Amino acid sequence: MNTKKHSPSKNLKAKRRKNIALNQLNDDAIISADDALKLAGKPPLTLGSLVRTLRHLSNKTQSDVANSLGVSVAFLSAVERGDKNLPPRHARALSKVLSYSEEVILEKILEHVLAEAKGHFEVTVRKSAG
Amino acid sequence: MTIVLMRGRAAKALRQASNRAQSAFSAWKDEVQLAGISAARANPIWHDHPLKGAKAGRRSVYLDYSWRAEYVIDRETGTVTVEVMEIQNHEY
User: Fold this and answer.
1) What pTM, to 2 d.p., does this model score?
2) Which residue of B has its CA nearest to A22?
3) Under the phi-then-psi rule, with left for phi > 0, alpha for psi from -120 to 50, and beta for the rest, what region is A96?
């Protein structure tokens, strides 16, 4: 008979630690939204998940968005899955069709490029005054 | 840059929220932090509006069919600080 105890996986242990941290949190305590998202187990949005979320929020189909950008539905679907990246020139058109900040979209596009290059960088995009 | 803070009860509610609502909250937070609260308020996808009655002083944003985030703006420090107060099932 196998008496070896089953040990929980690393992911499960991390999840339990986060749950304990959240349960110990006072209702009126203040934490940053980034920390709250981490404790909820929500990773930062990638370009693909951002596009899909905004598309749902604005009640648009993949076809609607793909037509506005001048790309195929298959390409947009690959972008949403995280398999492909959008060229930065599409950032303005995407921000218009999804009614969202161009800076954030551009930031996500650049983050995707850097992730592909396996670089550990942080991207911050700001509108220039000119 | 605008800082988005959350009350403990809102953080706990966020964990219970649907995946879609969590993603929408993350997208709203990114827009507020990067483009500012004025840009996010002007964005029609969030249906940002002031609340009345017992919740006067708070504003609400749409996250998904049954989830909303409520927040207040603290201008005391000179910078606009958005504090998410509650995320709860919307009772309509």
Assistant:
1) 0.84
2) B12
3) alpha
